[in-house]
């Protein structure tokens, strides 16, 4: 569906992008992840036929964007970071204009406008001038104009830009619903947005793609570790209280627990909370972060149970993608 | 309706919905009315022939039309660039000349609507005088052609920048220079005087329309000037579309 080969973009002598090469299959939802200013918007603008690459070739659906730009534009829906909404028009008139300018016949536009308004949940603002819309509605209208002509490829540049948490969740829901019928490219520097909506990630840094793959692949291959958080009720403890004696009594159980986990092959690190014995004394349980070279959830649980401890909770470690991201873009230690 | 028509409708609607369109119309009509009053009913008005009053009206209206054309045209592309809506057009399957032509025609239609509303003034001359209807028709044709030429200059200027003030300054300098060529042609000697007179937007080519005399060469001049600046605006759009 999308093919880029050695694409670069220079502004004067400054390199903003590339060289980048990748392919995206039809139906994929791909996230471009990177800090601000690493070339995400430049890349998406090139794909939307809004920016000429300095070198390299870009084809969409087999069409070269420089040789047949109008044919490509018919197949692409684009939501820039700031939705291109005319403030003087009502939402309905604007969507009608967007559909017509993208080549839809009047009858098709008349049919599509109510459909996309229902989909984007903007029916109630159909007659409202766009200048009076809240940021959340503007983003939704932006998505509506991008899909008005039912494009094969949908490009969303920072779709949750400036949205509040509720609006972000609604936007994610919209994007998930679009995944069934479109190939989608999303850029963001917000990790949960990417990890929760995309099948594959391309991480950009300094204009180049430094990693690609699923979240799990990136975690496996780049950090070479898998994290888990396990909550254990150590054998022989029952939450006796928070006094000093109870804490001292719980300390041997904590030490035993630590030894059991560290003895499991593949475990590379065990992180206990501050004053673990106090936590065991107070609650009877302990939540521990375990890192491993591979997925060590099963052997760790087995070892704990065989040692007489009760495993009462188990989750994959949170913020795994953040660690990948920070490591790849050369930030602070993960 | 092609892309030109779709853009024409949007842009004409923008004039109707925005205060800017009404402000320009109000100022032009007010000044036209005051100047016409001074000309037709002011001191020494009785000494003027009806034809002279009509010529004076067209003379005043030509200047106001040029100013209105600059004011109406400067927002056409600069505003889109500043607001980011240009991206919608740039990523749509629309050709640059269709964008330029649609915007030009919308501005010309709005300017023509303003011009047409001044029609009552020439007809007021009929109350106490006589004028040829052909004079009115030719005069208004001239106003339309002059307005079209200045609109095309404004469109070229607005295609160059995202700042409306810069566009206004550029359009004013180009239009002002073309106006000044006529008085300059009276000062310098040949062959420059002939070149300046041939290029001047408001001298030899305008005089015929003001007097009710139709010359094809004058029509060709304004059409050529309009085409030149619309073509230049299209080329600027093409160059900037992929930036």
The stretches of 5 or more residues of chain A where confidence is low (pLDDT under 50) are none
The strands making up the biggest β-sheet of chain A line up spatially as 6-7-8-3-9-10
Low-confidence stretches of chain B: none
| Total number of helices of chain A | 12
The count of strands of chain A amounts to 14
Question: Total strand count of chain B, please?
Answer: 0
Largest interface by Cβ-Cβ < 8 Å: A-B, 29 and 25 residues
Can you tell me the CATH class of the largest domain in chain A?
A: Alpha Beta
CATH fold name of the largest domain in chain A, please? Rossmann fold
Mean pLDDT of chain A: 85
Give the overall silhouette of chain B.
globular
Give the domain tally of chain A.
Answer: 2
Mean pLDDT of chain B: 91
**Anisotropy-based shape of chain A:** elongated
Report the span from N to C terminus of chain A. 35 Å
Using only CA atoms, what is the Rg of chain A? 25 Å
CATH homologous superfamily assignment of the largest domain in chain A? P-loop containing nucleotide triphosphate hydrolases
Can you give the helix content of chain B as a percent range?
Answer: over 70%
Query: Structural class, judged by helices and strands of chain A?
Result: alpha/beta
Number of domains of chain B: 1
Helix/strand class of chain B: mainly alpha
Describe the structure.
In chain A, strands 6-7-8-3-9-10 form a six-stranded mixed sheet, with helices on both faces. In chain A, strands 2-1-4-5 form a four-stranded antiparallel sheet, covered by helices on one side. Chain A folds into two domains: 2-213, P-loop containing nucleotide triphosphate hydrolases (Rossmann fold); 226-321, Alpha-Beta Plaits. Chain A has helices at 40-47, 69-75, 91-101, 106-120, 135-147, 165-178, 191-197, 215-223, 244-262, 276-283, 297-306, 320-328; strands at 2-11, 14-24, 29-33, 55-60, 63-64, 76-79, 153-157, 183-188, 200-205, 208-213, 226-233, 267-271, 286-292, 310-316. In chain A, helix 8 (215-223) packs across helix 12 (320-328). In chain A, a hairpin with a 2-residue loop joins strand 4 (55-60) and strand 5. Chain A is an alpha/beta fold and 334 residues long. Chain B has 243 residues and is mainly α. Chain B has one domain (3-241). In chain B, helix 8 (133-160) runs parallel beside helix 12 (216-241). The longest helix of chain B has 28 residues, at 133-160. The mean pLDDT of chain B is 91. The interface between A and B is medium-sized, with 29 and 25 residues.
